[in-house]
Amino acid sequence: MSAERVRQIVGESAKRVGAEYDLVRPGWREAARELLGRELAVSAATFLSVVGDAEDSVLCLLAEEVGAVEVRSWAGTSSRLWTISQDLVTLALRALVAQAPFAAAELAPRCEALGLTFVVGEVERILGHAKSALVCSPRGEWLRRKRRSADGAYLWFLEEGEPRRIEEVAEALDLPVRALGEAMRRDGRFVRVRPEGTWSLDSWPDAAKAVYRNALDVVVDVLGETGPLTFEHLASRVVARYPVTTGRVRQCLDSELIGLTADGRIDLVERGAVPREEPEPKRPETVWVDEINQRAAFLVRVDQEVLRGSGVPIHPWIPWYLGLRRAPAESAFTGADDLGPLVVRRSTSGSHLSSLRSRARALGVVEDCRLMVVLGLDDRSAGVSHDCEDERCPATQGRR
To answer: How far apart, in whole angstroms, are the C-alpha atoms of residue 379 and residue 325?
Structure first.
């Protein structure tokens, strides 16, 4: 039997059931259409209040008879919600997601404002689905899945109403300090308040004191004000404004914004300074190179950062060998495992490798295991393997 024949049978059944209901419950069609026309979607219980008691199968036929369909979303179809305006429901759900982050108490009024006045519990089910762009935090807040740490911190700051130290934020949200600090540093809603060292929201009055987001901002600002400087003069001016070490100031010289003048002083590239040629760092013993096949291999110890999915610090020689001589810069390498690219990133504050977590999980490694990463320069290929000795492998020992 073809799908078209099935559709015909269902349609004929709907017509027969609808005709029977016309006899026993006159006016049900008009009432149902009026209800569906007034709301973006209605619950099955509300629909039953119009058509009377009916089994689920009968309710489906009656809904189809008046042109209604089950609401579809990234959570699939829901037999508990019906609509004649699926496109409008989709737009409303997307608009709700776009409003995140927000507290749990704000869900109902936001739904009402968007016309999603059906059972809020159904909206929660849709938002909480594994394919949703949002997640519900332990505090009951709706956060964007890919920015949950920063979103959680943002709502926490709104509750606190004043700048706080990163350690306080991390403790309140039960998050690692380092990972949370990195997430906030990359998010334009947060700023560091200097010289106190606290964090604030950029919309707060105190944020006016937070002129700089990082050391590079200070270096660029100082050079913009003074013109070319020797490194000693530049470092002293930067440290006076921003509490960093001279070593961190020296890292900023790798930025694509900074260069050298003809007399060896430091200035902005936009004023004609020439980006300096980075000398080759000393290659560590844990990095191997196959010059003939254009392959570089290095070891990575599995720690909580790897298992959490954070960027893994790598030796600066690796991005240098890959040609990432200025910052920021990145290079992607594709594996044969369909787990997405491995990305080597170079910034003024260090070098990192991302996207190891999925491969670590696939290999079944645990903390303190070793991974061998192989990158191909000619074909941009990537390979990751478990490199522990069997008798010393933490994963093996854990199963004994």
So the answer is: 20
